[in-house]
Sequence to fold (775 residues):
Amino acid sequence: MNPTLAGFLQALALVGALALSYRPLGDHIAHTLTTRKHLRVERVIYRLIGVDGEAEQTWGSYLRSVLAFSFISVLFLYGFQRLQEHLWLSLGFPAVSPAVAWNTAASFVTNTNWQSYSGESTMGHLVQMGGLAVQNFLSAAVGIAVVAALIRGFRGSGGRSPEGHSTRNRTDHLGNFWVDLTRITLRVLLPISIVFALVLVAGGVVENLHAAQVVHTLSGATQSIPGGPVASQEVIKQLGTNGGGFYNANSAHPFENPNPFTNLVAVYLMLVISFALCRTFGKMVGSNKQGYTILSVMGLYWVASASLITFFEHQHSGIASQIAGAAMEGKEVRFGIPGSSLFAASTTLTSTGAVNSLHDSFTPLGGGTAILNMMFGEIAPGGTGSGLYGILILAVVTVFVAGLMVGRTPEYLGKKLGAREMKFASLYILTTPAIVLCGTGLAMSLKAGHGGGMNNSGPHGFSEVLYAFTSAANNNGSAFGGITVTSTHWQTALGLAMLFGRFLPMVFVLALAGSLARQTPIPETTGTLRTNNPLFVGMLSGVILIVVGLTYFPALALGPLAEGLH
Amino acid sequence: MAKPLPTPVRNHLTGLRILLLFTVLCGLLYPLAITGISQVAFSSQANGSLVKDGSGKVVGSSLLGQNFTVVSADGRTVSPDPELFQSRPSAAGAKGYDPTASGGTNKGTDDPDLAGTYTQLKAAVAEFNGVAQSQVPPDAITKSGSGLDPDISPAYAAIQVGRVARARGLTDARVQALVTKYTRSRTLGFLGEPRVDVLDLNIALTELG
Fold:
């Protein structure tokens, strides 16, 4: 088969699988978030943790629960790593050093999964399973919980209603964080993980508790074959848009991603929840069309980005790759250009950050597109939950801009967007760029501390630093991996970027949700801007491009553009 | 009765309790159950798709690439084994193909050092296999992301056929037939790229005698 056609069919198969999952999965998540019925096991959990499953929280209370839970998680994960040598299945590895343990704890709790360590030589099996993989589940669930609270702010009917759709009452109730966390993990993440973990093992991903096994190769040398409960962690790493690899090479490692089939499954898993949440959103606000509108914008950006990266990688610009004849540095033969590009686009447009090829070795514009993907705020379709709340904030901004143009009070989904709402939306939009640009600027100016870690020289070296802060602040976790980030400076700076990049936006999202929830819904009139048609799709797409483009253009010009446009 | 704890303390205690609960559920029971099922139902895959040579000795994993080299009599130099198909170059560990140090070079496509390395490698691969430099495919000189790539492209296998046949005293046709047998096309006709698993091919080759 012609390679171009094969690449196209591969993408088409993925789109088909995602389309088939959209309604059932989206409806299931909506049901999970709105039903009044608790499962028996959930009642047991609520009793054990001392929570009233029927209680509703205000935005402040919801936020305090999110923060308390995340704070405890960081402490716990830090301690777990520091005590590794005394634990079962440590494989003889010593305690993780304080700087790495701090960075990793911040990284996994914030759904970033930035890795400043090499899995196969740092983490024992118990820390991987009981520490890191647990946060893969829970940090993903936290993201979905926060977007659930925001949607409840729009529908204004409190957390749960028997019929599961809008009753549009004035309230300050946004649901219950502990109930959301428990339900999302038990009813959504765990069942899908169980099924697909077995699919991955059948496909060749390893799943055992062995230490490395030394064999004599065909040429008589020795090779140490690693073990580990990889498949069970791999599946939630993708499904929860986490991205932290069991091994250093992440999804390029043949034990994590042995063939083109497991590769397609991986890409499917990282996209499926975030796309399906559009359906959940539509269902919960009582208009599936609102969900399709958001889905269209996400889909548009995803298709454009995947096509661009594939195109740039095929072109293989660059002196070195012209000599080689293809941009195959850092890529695996089994995936080739199409399989690597599709993965790269999807992992940077979600907050996954897993890699099946090394982005540092991508062409300047291919790698630049990956940076731009993250700069958009990871909204196409974004991380589990965080992608949807990110794009909903941008939709709020779009409605406001459109309202200014026609001189009407902007309203979205029956709620007025006044000064208070716009302040929260603006703060959200400003937070991440502030962290990325200040962080990058500081790192470049403090040569002794940060700038020293670059692997490549010239604009590509700058791209490595820009990529690092963009990835950390947007909770992506992928890297231009050549950069050396093991110094205490880097560990601390990126750890803080991840924490602020995760939790400050959540504060603004929940504050916005609280402010929306308190409003009495206003009925739609002929003068209301419609937010469920192609015109709005175009406006929202434009706002995303302009807001992000203007913010980051100077930084991009110094890095990927300077390198890629000769 | 004791005074109820202040709300922030209660919040953190709830957080700790739910975290411990899910650590047991998602961090122990779930992976152990998956491991148990996998060990019974998919034992070969779950344990790393290990492969044996003709004598039944485990020589590696189908999924992990290896160096196929010969050591000189004085033990000082290690060079590619002309009797075996060669894998891609690897950046994993000092000698390459070290699974305890998976990874790639992370060099950009404009990197001058990388360009120099490519020029040298291209000449070396062409000379070793007795073919023109223009016939050397990209995967023969680029390093993979994992440093453990088990596969080479059919094009890289094709330029090695003549050299392997000469070194082993076999006909080109015999070696070519084996390469064809071990060439895997795209999954379902459109997923991934056509490729040859080098270790599997080399094991079959050594069994030919």
